[in-house]
Write a structure and sequence with these properties.
The chain is an alpha/beta fold and 340 residues long. It has one domain: Rossmann fold (3-Layer(aba) Sandwich). It contains eleven helices and 13 strands. The strands form four sheets. The protein has a seven-stranded parallel β-sheet, sandwiched between helices. Helix 2 links the parallel strand 2 and strand 3. The radius of gyration is 19 Å and the shape is globular. The chain starts with a strand and ends in a 20-residue tail after the last helix.
């Protein structure tokens, strides 16, 4: 009801571009910051081409979050920051920890500092369920983290510490969202670090065999991007100052094994009529840095943010699968608009 000026870092990514789409549809003004190292200009173009009458409400700042000047320019006159720029890959962080630290820690600090200097009203940032590391507690609850199993996990834990310190020291209202395995439209299926859902969908569509690391009994909580959008809007708009300076699990509150995920994707492709039967997956060795079991309690987010997931795995796949077949998907954001 009250238009704001928002900054989305990583606006060219699949989460960032979906946030852009929703905010423009809600008549907001949006600044996007991206260096397009992993994000895509095509994602932004797809959003703007579909709503040319709203394109004037978007401003792109092309730059790197490791550049403090770019961060200050992007944060100027902004009310809310939604920070999603990152190298979001556990294997990549293990292969190149220096780059992962540079982007995910130094870059995060630059955006946080620029937001503080610009007197931004709310700083919402993407954390990760990876911070739970080797905790044996299932479902995972926010206070009970374990040892980080990768540089990526360590960086996200550092982000949370810095955000809390900036709120305590400077009064910058921060909220961290610990995402579980997010999937949705515009998620890149290619590359060594692609998400498992788009990678398996395109692999099966190409008639190839999917690979599963381990025995397939590793569990994950797969969260459709519509749920993530809802969480960001709630975190940005919640009026109770007591809920800031904290972190919240954001998932679908349903844990499935990789074997179950493979069956669900195969069944979705069969229902679409593009697959008669999926070839059996190829099982490989467990991958370094991977958490064995990941299941998050969303009770805190329900209670303090009003977060209610709208898409479970089956509903999410029903919307995502056609987008990788060259078809179209419906407006996944309609349920998120209610929280604006």
């Amino acid at each position: 009801m009250r238009p704001r000026r928002w900054l989305i870092t990583g606006v060219g990514g699949f989460i960032g571009s979906n946030l852009l789409e929703q905010l423009l549809d809600l008549n907001q003004r949006v600044v996007g910051l991206d260096n397009f190292s992993t994000g895509s200009r095509a994602n932004i173009a797809e959003v703007l081409d579909a709503r040319p009458d709203l394109a004037h409400r978007f401003e792109l700042v092309e730059g790197d979050i490791r550049d403090p000047r770019a961060c200050r320019r992007a944060c100027a006159d902004v009310d809310v920051v939604l920070h999603h720029a990152a190298l979001a890959s556990v294997p990549r962080s293990i292969e190149d920890p220096a780059e992962a630290h540079s982007v995910n820690v130094d870059g995060f600090f630059n955006v946080l500092l620029a937001a503080k200097e610009a007197e931004v009203a709310r700083f919402v940032y993407a954390s990760s369920s990876a911070v739970y590391g080797d905790t044996p507690i299932q479902p995972q609850t926010e206070p009970c983290t374990g040892r980080p199993l990768s540089p990526y996990a360590a960086a996200k834990a550092i982000n949370e510490t810095y955000a809390a310190a900036f709120q305590s020291s400077y009064g910058l209202a921060t909220i961290g969202l610990r995402y579980y395995n997010v999937f949705g439209p515009r998620q890149d299926p290619s590359g060594a670090y692609a998400g498992v859902i788009p990678r398996w969908i395109t692999t099966l569509l190409d008639g190839r065999v999917c690979e599963i690391y381990g025995d397939g009994e590793t569990t994950r909580d797969f969260c459709h991007v519509a749920n993530v959008i809802q969480a960001n809007l709630l975190a940005a708009a919640v009026s109770d100052d007591g809920v800031t300076g904290q972190v919240y699990n954001i998932g679908a509150s349903t844990s499935v094994t990789l074997n179950e995920l493979f069956s669900a994707i195969s069944a979705a492709l069969v229902r679409e009529g593009v697959l008669r039967d999926a070839p059996a997956p190829n099982y490989r060795a467990f991958r370094q840095g991977d958490v064995r079991h990941s299941s998050g309690s969303i009770d805190k987010a329900r209670r303090l943010l009003g977060y209610i997931p709208t898409h479970d795995l089956r509903a999410g796949l029903a919307e995502v699968v056609p987008s990788y077949m060259g078809g179209t998907i419906g407006n996944v954001h309609s349920t998120a608009a209610r929280v604006a």
